[in-house]
Amino acid sequence: MPGRRARHGTVAAVSAALLLSACAAAPDDGGVTARSGAPVKSTTAAGRAALPGSAGEPKRARQALPGVGPAMLAGIPDTARQVLLVTGDGRNEPTSTVRLYQRTKAGGWEAVTDAWPAHNALKGWTHDHRLGDLRSPIGVFALTDAGGLLPDPGTRLPYDRSDAFTVSGTGFEGEPLDGSFDYVVAINYNREPGTSPLDWARPDGAEKGGGIWVHVDHDGPTQACVSIAEEHLKILLRTLDPALKPVIVMGDAATLAR
Q1: pLDDT single digits (tens) 161-200
Q2: pTM of this prediction?
Q3: 110-127: b or e for each residue (b if 16 or more CB lie within 10 Å)?
Q4: How far apart are CA 189 and CA 217, in angstroms?
Q5: In the chain, what are the domain boundaries?
Q6: pLDDT tens-digit map of 45-55
């Protein structure tokens, strides 16, 4: 069933400056940030992905996600049945691969989409992202809310359609940013879960940034977000299921493998 429609009152007061501070903004606009990739152990509004689950979860469920080692696996909550895996090409590289996995009845993981090319931040990845450092976060984060400039494509996530998702200008390589926010999925870093991706609350403080999204690729690096082709993002939106407690696992390949 489609997700909830736009909360127009929520976004009406969002200024153009808010969008210009998001991760796909032009290089001189400040950017957004993301939190550390340390295993998540709380469910605060800052976007810590989820609580670790019970000790009774089958061990094989933590051993079958391709390229993900025990340190990162430990941060995936046992309640999570969907994982969007973002594997960066290098610690200082702006390109990556994205694939959605779903937990099987046997406790392992199986791919439910193809592997998709993606962009991440211009300078790669970090465990301690700060506002404007042009690096994407390494870690595990919940995916609970979506939105965009265009109408809901049929997602089960709450979906906030608003003209406030309009963006213009050019990216780091001179590419136009128009359409980058046609569809977005909020990554729960330093934000209030259950609100529009446009919500500007920053529970961990403004210096830790916010507005980290999966959004439409503009054929160039982002300031902190992950971007994929529009056709792939529409598939993702239609496949993510809040009942399966989806999370994103993201970082460079070498770090994810530890």
Answers
A1: 999 999 999 999 999 999 999 999 999 998 999 999 999 9
A2: 0.80
A3: eeeeeebebbbbbbbbbe
A4: 20
A5: 8-51+58-256
A6: 333 333 233 23
